[in-house]
């Protein structure tokens, strides 16, 4: 699955996007975040419980229990500050 | 219509282009967001002197189009224009333009405010402030923006 990072998540994780191979047990948005947290200290910290983050699935805001599918575009970013 | 662009825009030219030839329009409301002249000095004596707006290409256009559609369903609008810039900007530069046109002023006023409130909390843009030493820091979201949005919930 393609995972995109924006703003401080991009700078913290060190890339704007990456292709992640997910195990079959990963079924929801929350599962993806849990899986990413196991990828190393940088991920665990950037996606820590104390951080306020938003997730978009195929360019729509997503909830933690939304189901993911192969080929989805998954984006993680902080609350927006445009305008 | 929505536009996401790096370039500056000419407010007068945009409004003229929108109203030209449409005599059903009785009132136009516009809002222009600018980069503030940040004269606040931070704790370490550095000063913010520019900002860079990052966005999520694709989702930005999608969200802005949805926001426009919602406004058009809610108010009788003749036309809507949203322009949002990205990239590096200095104080005084335009960031965002919202223009609404309707037969009557109330729809134009209300929908322009609605569009700005939605855009501030839903459009995927992030501000990176740059200080006079070249260091960047990400701007935190404000709760007051969420409060502004909640007043439109019916």
Folded structure, characterized:
The complex is a heterodimer of chains A (83) and B (154). Chain A has three helices and five strands. The model of chain A has no long low-confidence stretch (mean pLDDT 96). Chain A has a single domain, classed as Roll (Ubiquitin-like (UB roll)), CATH 3.10.20. Chain A has 83 residues and is α+β, with helices and mostly antiparallel strands. Chain B has a single domain (2-150), classed as Alpha-Beta Complex (Aldehyde Oxidoreductase, domain 3), CATH 3.90.1170.40. In chain B, 33% of the residues lie in helices and 33% in strands. In chain B, the strands form two sheets. A four-stranded mixed sheet of chain B has the order 1-4-6-2, with helices on both faces. In chain B, strand 7 and strand 8 form a beta hairpin. The longest helix of chain B has 18 residues, at 105-122. The chains are: A alpha+beta (83), B alpha+beta (154). The A-B interface holds A 4, 6-8, 10, 52, 56, 59-61, 75, 77-83 and B 33, 53-56, 58-59, 62-63, 84, 95-96, 116, 119-128, 138-142.
Which word captures the global form of chain A?
A: globular
Radius of gyration of chain A: 12 Å
- The CATH topology of chain A comes to Ubiquitin-like (UB roll)
End-to-end Cα distance of chain A: 31 Å
Order of helices and strands of chain A: EHEHHEEE
Strand content of chain A: 15-25%
Strand content of chain B: 25-35%
Query: How many DSSP H or I helices of chain B?
Result: 4
Shape by Cα distribution of chain B: globular
| Domain count of chain B | 1
Secondary-structure content class of chain A: alpha+beta
Total beta strand runs of chain B: 8
Strand line-up of the largest beta sheet of chain B: 1-4-6-2
Poorly predicted residue ranges of chain B: none
The domain tally of chain A reads 1
Could you estimate the helical fraction of the residues of chain A in percent?
25-40%
Total count of helical runs of at least 4 residues of chain A: 3
Major pleated sheet of chain B:
4 strands, mixed
């Amino acid at each position: 699955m393609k995972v995109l990072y924006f703003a401080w998540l991009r700078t913290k994780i060190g890339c704007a996007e990456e292709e992640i191979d997910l195990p079959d047990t990963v079924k929801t948005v929350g599962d993806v975040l849990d899986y990413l947290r196991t990828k190393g200290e940088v991920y665990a910290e950037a996606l820590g419980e104390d951080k306020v983050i938003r997730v978009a699935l195929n360019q729509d805001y997503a909830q933690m229990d939304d189901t993911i599918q192969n080929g989805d575009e998954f984006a993680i970013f902080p609350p927006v500050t445009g305008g | 219509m929505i536009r996401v662009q790096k370039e500056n825009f000419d407010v007068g030219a945009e409004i003229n282009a929108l109203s030209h030839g449409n005599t059903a329009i009785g009132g136009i409301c516009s809002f222009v967001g600018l980069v503030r002249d940040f004269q606040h000095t931070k704790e370490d004596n550095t000063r913010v002197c520019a900002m860079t707006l990052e966005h999520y290409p694709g989702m930005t256009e999608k969200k802005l189009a949805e926001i426009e559609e919602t406004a058009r369903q809610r108010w009788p609008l003749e036309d809507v224009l949203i322009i949002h810039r990205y990239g590096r900007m200095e104080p005084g530069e335009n960031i965002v333009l919202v223009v609404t046109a309707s037969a009557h002023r109330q729809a134009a006023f209300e929908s322009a405010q609605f569009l700005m409130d939605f855009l501030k909390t839903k459009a995927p843009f992030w501000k990176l402030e740059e200080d006079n030493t070249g260091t960047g820091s990400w701007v935190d979201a404000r709760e007051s923006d969420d409060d502004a949005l909640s007043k439109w919930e019916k």
